[in-house]
Amino acid sequence: MMGAIVLLHRWLGIAFCLLFAMWFASGMVMHFVSFPSLTEAERIAGLAPVDRARVAVAVAGAVSASGVTDATRVRLVERSDGPVAIVSGPARMRAVRATDGQDASVRSPEVALTIARGHARQRGLDAAHAAVVALADHDQWSVPNGFDRHRPLFRVALGDAAGTEVYVSSLTGEVVLDTTRSERGWNLVGSVLHWIYPTVLRSHWQLWDRVVWTLSLLALIAAVLGAVLGIVRVKMQGSRLSSPFRGWHALHHIIGLVATVFVLTWIFSGWLSMDHGRLFSRGQLTTAEAGVVYAAPDWRTALPLDQNPISPEAREVEWFAFGGDLYRRERRGVDRQVVVRPDGAESPDLGAQEVASVATRLASGCGLPSVVADHDDYPAQSTVPGTPVYRSRCGDVWLDVDGADGSVLQRLDGSRRAYRWFYTALHTLDFPVLMAHPRLRDVVIVGLCALGLVFSVTGIVIGWRRLRSTFAV
């Protein structure tokens, strides 16, 4: 039995030692440089105030013109070619012009370039030398599934000193992503390596999911076998522990013993990052629950703009369904908004009673929602800084609702709460005590990943020597 474990660990270790080293090294990079995205602050900053005088199509008319029969949200934004209403439903999204209700998708590179320049100008970026460089469904930075509704994407290089590139949705004409030269460079040795994210693989989500899940599981098996051997091979010399090995083998054994808990929990939690509903729930509303929260409203009930005029400060106006009622909100800045209720009353966000009313229609036993605190054991943040996230506890199910727009950020049943600790906490070390001391967390993460990297390097050396001796001519 022990001989089989030795052989299996040896050859799995040889097969995966480089992968282990890559994961630890790239993990350190990822801690400081995240995958490129358009942050909410950047998105809002890139929007011009809505030209109220040119909005001629009522909300109900925009929904009708879009053909999205189950629409739950309509956003009004100002593009460089005029105001556009973006109508969204559970499965479809369409953009129509707010001036005449005609299709507002972007087919021309010239229009995409104008939109990108307008976005850059609002953010104070230099776009004097901007040019469209590609129209494609996927590239290295646009492979996440969240962009599926927007494909194909126009990629526009701004030609500025930072090497900024922005991506314009061909469906809505919105800027949905930006990257800089620095982000792209660091991510090639960070997220792309860590997630095994080459475009050719990641653009096929199911294949990528199966490949990475399988590789992670085999790596976990290799680590578990190594931990078993490491513990079994420990010898006692008087009152201290020692290794029976010499040289690189001894170094690998000793560092492995020191790092066993971290390596096992990190590899295990990394494997769980690919769970996607295999062992744990996904944290999403069921179809029936979503039908209650986001029930398609009667768009004809939307308050006319002549009764509730749009503020000249509004950079985005959104009508959204929540519990069957229709609300309107104006984004006036990244941290400033106004919510207009069905009766015309205004406030900065939804209230706890409104959230409670919808939650009690989903499940019984829901108490009055509480506000999720900073550094909560189960964190959740609003898209609008400073806006409360309400947590309704309905028996075993907790619902976190964004007070900004009624979105359910997460559905936490017992399985999902366990996943939060088995995956997120173990893999990113976002334990509340460490989140309260970010510098300490940085040191702990870098130190442990560096220890794991050194451990992996010893495995690489041992594996290389084994291969040379095995296949020597």
UniProtKB/TrEMBL annotation:
Signal peptide coordinates: none
Transmembrane segments: 12-33, 211-231, 251-272, 443-464
Domain of life: Bacteria
Record has Membrane as a keyword: yes
Assigned keywords, A-Z: Membrane, Transmembrane, Transmembrane helix
Protein name according to UniProt: Putative iron-regulated membrane protein
